[in-house]
Amino acid sequence: MNYNIKIEKTTNPKVKPDDSKLSFGKTFTDHMFVMDYNPEKGWHDPRIVPYGPLSLDPSTCVLHYGQGIFEGLKAYYTAKGDIALFRPRKNIERMNNSCERMCIPKLDEDFIVEAIKTLVRLEKDWVPKAPGTSLYIRPFIIATDPFLGVHPSHTYKFLIILAPSGAYYPGGINPVKIYVEDKYVRAAQGGTGYAKTMANYAISLKAQEEAEKKGYVQVLWLDGIKRKYVEEVGAMNVFFKVNGEVITPALNGTILPGITRDSVIAMLKHMNIPVSERLITIDELVHAAEEGTMEEAFGTGTAAVISPIGELNYKDKIYTINNGSIGPISQKLYDSLTGIQYRKIEDPFGWVVPVE
Ligand SMILES: *Cc1c(COP(=O)(O)O)cnc(C)c1O
Asked: What's 238's domain CATH number?
């Protein structure tokens, strides 16, 4: 593969939005990274071009059968005045696992990390500087064969787009209300739960919509067979602190292996706080909430980092957690993880990767 990335700069740069007015995923930078795949050349022609629409035949594979995957990570403007990524290699390893599940040809992990760095370096003036802001990085792959037929595509496009994003918690951290979903399911053993593939999100929308109508921001998914075991929350993994121990569902093929989840487990071990990955039943959680041993609950993901859960609704009964406010471990994890990401504190794990 030709590792030389061709760069075509825009002749029409956009006006950058004010750091304090950024939201999430609505504004994109001036350039994007693109690379193609075909069976003869493999992944080829890596290039950075002006950001703009794609031209696709209406029969294009991904538009009909959803053969596509994505990733999400961030670049941070740090307290040291540089730009850094957080464990980017992990995202590309996970992307290759998603490729494997979805019959998409794998990527060269070192090269993709280089491609991300090259694009972010070119767009460095787009990395917002206000507290809590970041540049969201969205790599994705779509199947591009113009062909109606349920069969893996022979051709693909890999792209990276960048979105400057506002602080997730502009007014301080607010715990969220979560609806425990016992009708719809997200994933089952043997399915695609562990892959960041497009279809997983399409099938989650209905439950999300119904939960929102009832005043909840996300759903907590239960296992696809018995609706008994806890899995994850929307696009976040989930943790509970019960009786002094932090617990999270073990990775069993139906749960997305979050990089924030992995980082939180490592940090808890580093802090000598007991943590275990295991099967967790919803009954056990409800019981703990009733008897007062449910101390904290929170979701983890790249977007929010730590999202405390203040209330669970299960079968229309309401369980309040820590009086609906953020608990001390959740706060400490948030401060430490964002402290490392923004290089405000020492990174004992070697997770931060400077771009320059
Ligand atoms: C992306 C995602 C997560 C969180 O993963 P991070 O790597 O921590 O951002 C959790 N669950 C689902 C379903 C996801 O799509």
From this structure: 3.20.10.10
- Nearest protein CA to atom 13 of ligand 1, as residue: 235
Domain of residue 318 covers 176-341
Residues 23, 133: contact at Cβ < 8 Å? no
237: CA distance to ligand 1 center in Å? 7
Phi and psi torsions of 287, nearest 5°: -60, -45
Instruction: Flag whether pLDDT at 2 surpasses 70.
Output: no
Q: How many structural domains comprise the chain?
A: 2
How far is ligand 1, taken at its centre, from the CA of residue 87, in Å?
14
* 278 & 337 share domain: yes
Distance CA 128, CA 75 (A): 9
How many angstroms separate the alpha carbon of residue 157 from the centre of ligand 1?
A: 22
Residues 128 and 57 in one domain: yes
- Of 108, 138, 165, which residue sits at a domain end? 165
What single-letter DSSP state applies at residue 301? E
Global pTM exceeds 0.70: yes
Kindly write down the DSSP assignment for every residue of 108-126, as one continuous string: -HHHHHHHHHHHHHHTGGG
Q: How far is the CA of 72 from the centre of ligand 1 (A)?
A: 8
State the pLDDT at residue 193. 98
The answer to the question of residue 352 being in a domain is no
| HEC secondary structure over 312-356 | EEECCEEEECHHHCCCHHHHHHHHHHHHHHCCCCCCCCCCEEECC
Q: Which CATH number characterizes residue 71's domain? A: 3.30.470.10
> Atom 5, ligand 1: which residue's CA is nearest?
258
pLDDT digit string, tens, across residues 173-216: 889 999 999 999 999 999 999 999 999 999 999 999 999 999 99
* 302 alpha carbon – ligand 1 mean position (Å): 7
Q: Whose CA is nearest to atom 1 of ligand 1?
A: 235
Q: How far is residue 175's CA from residue 171's CA, in Å, rounded to a whole number? A: 12
- 82 CA → ligand 1 middle, Å: 26
Pocket test for ligand 1, best of 181, 201, 255, 256 (most atoms within 8 A of CB): 256
Name all residues whose Cβ lies below 6 A of ligand 1: 72, 196, 232, 235-237, 256, 258-261, 300-302
